[in-house]
Amino acid sequence: MKSHIIYRPAGAAAEYASWGCNLYGGCTHHCAYCYNKRGVFRHALGGDMPQLMVKAGGSLQKAYELFSTQLDRDLETIIRDGGIFFSFTTDPMLPETIDGTMICAEYALKNGAPIQLLTKATWWLDRSGVVETLYDYRNLVRVGFTLTGRDDMEPCAPPNEERIQAMQYLVDCHIPVFASLEPIIDFASSLKMILDIADFCKEMRIGIMSPYNPKQYSWSLCDRFMKKVDELASDKGISVYYKNSIRRFYKENAPQ
Ligand code: SF4
Predict the structure, then answer these.
(1) Which residues pair with 115 in a beta bridge?
(2) What is the DSSP string of 3-64?
(3) In the predicted model, is pLDDT for residue 220 greater than 60?
(4) What is the rounded distance in angstroms from the CA atom of residue 243 to the CA atom of residue 256?
(5) Among the ranges given (25-29, 45-49, 138-142, 236-240), the one the predictor scored with the smallest mean pLDDT
């Protein structure tokens, strides 16, 4: 099948959204656990600098044309399915990626299609026009921040605490946010992140490391973590989505 610029993600990515858009591959955050640096597509996706994807057509102008043409064609289905996720192959809010992200995101928003942005970057809060645009379309936008609590594994990304401050700022601006607690590197660090944001972040998605390797985790620590998160979610009215990865770990490794 022809590769489209807006596509239907498969596997773990499909748990995030029914439609995704990857304009760029490669990322400057250099996370030690980056899933794009593994597997058969690592040469195309795992670079240290974002590059336009081949299917983006070779230029930002062409990428925009491809995006807008496909959005026009599939608009009704995309809206019905909950919109488009940016991005599985880079951080869409890097200085190198934000222009492409925002021209396409804004086209989607102008046409009534919801978007989700998942980032670790914070610099763009000060870039003229970006927060303003997200505010204008706040009913269609959700901005996610990945939180692991492990700055040592994310050497070139803003510290986790800075991401939390960015989330709080967006909430104060009435722009909806969610937290991606994925991957959990250790349960204690992830729980600390959850406790730090529980008063203002009402949507959390939680998953373990990819590819699946149960030897990396302790079932009893996972059990304690999930019980604590469930208790907090109930107390604070937080919507928690446990991804298949952690649900599988919990089920398959429970003591007999
Ligand atoms: S932010 Fe995501 S894409 Fe970028 S290096 Fe980290 S895991 Fe990879």
Answers:
(1) 84, 141
(2) PPSEE---GGGGGT-SEEE--EE--SS--TT-GGGSSTTHHHH--SS-EE-GGGTTSHHHHH
(3) yes
(4) 23
(5) 45-49
Mean pLDDT of 40-62: 85
- Whole-number pLDDT of residue 1: 43
50: exposed, middle or buried (Cβ count in 10 Å: 0-12, 13-18, 19+):
buried
Closest CA to 123 of 74, 157, 161: 157
**Can you give the pTM of this predicted structure?**
0.96
What are the tokens at 80?
Answer: 């019905």
Tell how many helices (H) and how many strands (E) occur in the chain.
8, 10
Distance CA(67)–CA(200), nearest Å, equals 34
Q: What is the DSSP string of 131-150?
A: HHHHHHTTTTEEEEEE--S-
Q: Ligand 1, atom 7: nearest CA belongs to which residue?
A: 34
Place of tokens 């991401």: 163
Give the residue among 182, 236, 233 at the shortest CA–CA distance from 206: 182
At position 117, the amino acid (one-letter code) is L
Protein residues with CB under 6 Å of any ligand 1 atom:
27, 29-31, 34, 36, 90-91, 120
Confidence at residue 45, expressed as pLDDT on a 0 to 100 scale: 73
Provide the pLDDT for residue 179: 98
pLDDT tens-digit series, residues 154-197: 999 999 999 999 999 999 999 999 999 999 999 999 999 999 99
Residue with CA nearest ligand 1 atom 4? 27
Confidence at residue 12, expressed as pLDDT on a 0 to 100 scale: 83
For ligand 1, the distance from its centroid to the CA atom of residue 255, given in whole angstroms, is: 34
